[in-house]
Amino acid sequence: MRKVILIGSPNSGKSLLFNRLTGMHQKVANFPGITVDMASGPMQSLPDVTIVDYPGTYSLQPISGEEEVAVEHFKHALDDPQVVHVLCLIDATRLEKSVYFMLQVIRECESHGKRVVVLANMMDILKKHQISIDLEGLAREIKAPVIGISARTGIGFNDLVESLNSDINLDEKSVDSGIAEVPDAFLRGTAHQLARRYGPKGDILIKSQTRLDDFFLHSVFGGISFFVIMYLLFQSIFTLAAPAMEGVESALGWVSDWVVPAIGSQMARDFTADALFSGIGAFLVFVPQIFVLTFVIGILEDSGYMARAALICHKPLRVFGLTGKSFIPMLSGVACAIPAIYAARSIDSPRKRLLTYMAIPLMPCSARLPVYTLLIAAFIPQVTAFGGLLGMQGLAMFAIYFFGMASGLVVTGLVSRMSEDHYADLPFVLEMPPYRIPAWQPLIRNSWNRSKHFVTKAGKIIFAVTVVVWILGYFPNFGQDLAASWLGYLGLWIEPLFAPLGLDWRYGVAVLTSFLAREVFVGTLGTMFGIEGAEENMVPLVAQIQASGLSIASGLALLVFFAIALMCVSTMAIMARESESNTLTLKLFAAYGLAAYGLAVLTYNVATLFS
Predict the structure, then answer these.
(1) Which band of pLDDT confidence, cut at 50, 70 and 90, is reported for residue 32?
(2) Which of 76, 80, 41, 36 is nearest to 54 (CA)?
(3) 148 within domain boundaries
(4) Which residue intervals of 199-286 are DSSP H helices?
């Protein structure tokens, strides 16, 4: 099996190119630190050629832990006899920055006898603005083939495949470009000369980016636009997902009305109605919101705004001991904590990386979203204005999300002031990528894959928990009296623990099962309410909660509890592995659990007093 290495700097379009060449679905985003692991896959056009994608790096002289991993593995891979080509991806719109890295790659490959093919990406952008670039002249100068491509549109892919498929090229050794012994200081000067001689003429792209940055990075308008964009993000979770949620709920009701009466066995009929349609069905209703959340965040990433948001947040985050680079993992935690923990690898400072680990569990992840949505829908009126852009439920969602994020900042701020800093921090450096129109097809595919992964990953846990809850609640009296079932006895035993929150035993059981996965809370409640009212098992879960007598004070207490309590066991496992500390993970679990319970009790009492 022949191997081809794909290497490039962040924001060069490397992951998008990898996806097009292999047909895989690696995460694509427009900010540094996304490719945190090496990915590999066979080329669709050349199945006997495996493409290996390395994390993006700005130089072969690494300054961060992530770059060290990329450079170390790249140099090690050059000794592999199966590696026949190195694809060095450069950004044709920012040639000077890319050419210096390209010259380093060529120099390293020469010493190992590997051929380099340079891929000048973003040719579609140059063509759109009618800007020319002398790729032939650059190829003659560096004595290596340079192919103009567009990872977004597929321009130049036939030339790339033809080059890789050429037996002559595969058998040839690298050509001496004359830079094998040139030090980095001289390479920088050479890169500047090559970019000026062969690069795009004119600064129309820089002027366009500068005009937008003057607004989005403005000291006043930048902050206002940041909060407006974040609010629209959370409001869209309700506004855009509502039709799909209603469609899923109607479809489940239709299928239930058709399937349940056709089942002969009473026990099987009860299990299908109560466990499957009421339990798992209650969870599936919220999947469209996961899709919308991932889609909107993807727009922010692909458009180039996410890096600006990180820059805007750098100064206020410094107050809490963090860096602007912490914003990217923290916002990624809004989708899922596991990739957010991985993304924290891009933080250069070990201390700030540790503080980011502590903040990520408090970010309102998508697993919490069904719980938030359920409780907000049960207690917050659905009042909207301006065509759905402004609404009470959206404001409530924004508030609980902001509360979780603010709690994370408070924790890191306290810890950073209570502990000594034994690390010398590196300066905050963040590349501002160009503004781009998102690639809609990969964006939709990624949102779909994220939603599907959410269902398949959480669905297994929810199904297992739902079956156990249904068995405990159905026996020994076959669902005649839930309070007299095995589940009822267990719930009554733990009920005193949740009594200070105004919760009965049913909610206590749902909270305990949610430690496997937060979204299990919804499925557990759906299962129990289905058993309690089997003849009305398809009544929306929101109506069931409202009819159960749960007070708004208890609902607010539950929101606070879920916002603070440490997330699922899988997140704890990943955090222990990434931080290389089981002690840290266990301490966070205990501390956040106690803090969540205490704040929930306080919220319940204050809300009861005012109500």
Answers:
(1) very low
(2) 36
(3) yes
(4) 204-216, 221-239, 242-259, 266-271, 281-284
> Which residues are CB-contacts of 379 (< 8 A; sequence separation ≥ 6)?
552, 555, 556
Single out the residue of 590, 598, 425 nearest to residue 515, CA to CA. Answer: 590
Per residue in 197-230, pLDDT (tens digit) is 887 765 556 666 778 888 888 888 888 888 888 7
> What confidence score (pLDDT) does residue 169 get?
46
Helices (H), 475-519: 486-498, 505-513
- Alpha-carbon torsion, ordered 273, 474, 374, 301, to 10 deg: -80
Whether 503 is in a domain gets the answer: no
Count Cβ atoms below 10 Å from residue 593 Cβ, excluding itself.
15
CATH number for the domain including 150?
A: 3.40.50.300
Return d(Cα 220, Cα 227) in angstroms, integer. Answer: 11
Task: State phi, psi for 504 to the nearest 5 degrees.
Answer: -85, -175
In-domain check, residue 8: yes
Segment holding 191, helix H or strand E:
helix 184-198
**Residue 45 DSSP symbol:** S
- In this structure, is the dihedral angle defined by the CA atoms of residues 545, 548, 550 and 552, taken in order, positive or negative? positive
> CA–CA separation, 336 vs 366, rounded Å?
6
Task: Answer whether residue 328 is part of any domain.
Answer: no
pTM of the model: 0.62
Residue 589 and residue 592: Cα distance in Å, rounded?
5
Residue span of the structural domain in which 34 resides? 2-202
Tally of structural domains, the chain: 1
Alpha-carbon distance 264 to 104, whole Å? Answer: 72
| Residue 397 pLDDT exceeds 90 | no
Q: Residue 546 and residue 548: Cα distance in Å, rounded?
A: 5
**Would you state the structure tokens that stand for residue 27, as one six-digit string?**
């995460």
Contact 197, 121 (CB under 8 A): no
Q: Which amino acid is at 602?
A: L
- Strands 49-53 vs 390-391: parallel, antiparallel or unpaired: unpaired
- By DSSP bridging, strand 39-42 and strand 390-391 are unpaired
Residue 41: φ, ψ to 5°: -175, 155
SS (H, E, C) 268-295: HHHHHHHHHHHHHHHHHCCHHHHHHHHH
Q: Which two tokens stand for residue 424?
A: 């010398």
